[in-house]
């Protein structure tokens, strides 16, 4: 099925603040199914590779330091129109602009520490999922 997968990470701030359960609950209640999931502590190299597109941005070093600070949950999620619906569920990058009831509105700390990641395209959903999981680990 095309367009039915997206990739997410529950970021260090949300993990440290004890929000992982509430966030997963909101994701499941919103109609997403878990296709794959694990806890992982990113290495510097993994964080730099994952966010390679932002390598030239002024916040890159801060982003890598943040993402490697504590273990995170990475997961592949399944739903019709997964990428678009999940971006709606997580809300704007800056939690101050995030719509009420979105994950970032409810659980994010700041623009840099914004609780959750969601793929921004179908192609990236595939690339990001296979960065962390083999085909055999996705159900
Ligand atoms: P992701 O789902 O994590 O990819 O977020 P996004 O797609 O909403 O935003 P984007 O891809 O533009 O940025 C990736 C991540 O870099 C953001 O989620 C933030 O954690 C971080 N980031 C983006 N802009 C800034 C910024 O201006 N300052 C800081 N400190 N971090 C930023
Ligand atoms: Mg992004």
Structure description:
By secondary structure, the protein is an alpha+beta fold. The chain has a single domain, classed as Alpha-Beta Plaits (2-Layer Sandwich). It is built from seven helices and four strands, in the order βααβααβααβα. It has helices at 12-16, 20-29, 44-50, 60-67, 82-90, 103-107, 122-132, and strands spanning 5-10, 33-40, 72-78, 116-118. It has a four-stranded antiparallel β-sheet with strand order 2-3-1-4. The longest helix has 11 residues, at 122-132. The radius of gyration is 14 Å and the shape is globular. The mean pLDDT is 97. Bound molecules: guanosine-5'-triphosphate (GTP) and magnesium ion. Guanosine-5'-triphosphate is lined by residues 54, 59, 62-63, 93, 111-112, 114, 117-118, 120.
Walk me through the topology.
Blueprint: E1 5-10, H1 12-16, H2 20-29, E2 33-40, H3 44-50, H4 60-67, E3 72-78, H5 82-90, H6 103-107, E4 116-118, H7 122-132
Antiparallel strand pairs: 1-3, 1-4, 2-3
Bound molecules: guanosine-5'-triphosphate (GTP) and magnesium ion (MG).
């Amino acid at each position: 099925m095309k367009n039915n997968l997206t990739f997410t990470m529950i970021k260090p701030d949300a993990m440290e603040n004890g929000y992982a359960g509430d966030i997963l609950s909101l994701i499941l209640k919103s109609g997403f199914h878990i296709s794959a999931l694990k806890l992982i502590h990113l290495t510097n190299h993994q964080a730099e590779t994952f966010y390679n597109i932002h390598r030239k941005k002024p916040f890159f070093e801060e982003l890598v330091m943040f993402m490697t600070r504590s273990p995170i949950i990475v997961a592949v999620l399944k739903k019709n129109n997964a990428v678009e619906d999940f971006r709606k569920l997580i809300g704007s990058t800056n939690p101050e602009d995030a719509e009420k009831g979105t994950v970032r509105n409810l659980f994010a700390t700041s623009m840099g520490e914004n609780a959750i990641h969601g793929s921004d395209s179908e192609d990236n959903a595939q690339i990001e999922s296979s960065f962390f999981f083999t085909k055999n680990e996705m159900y």
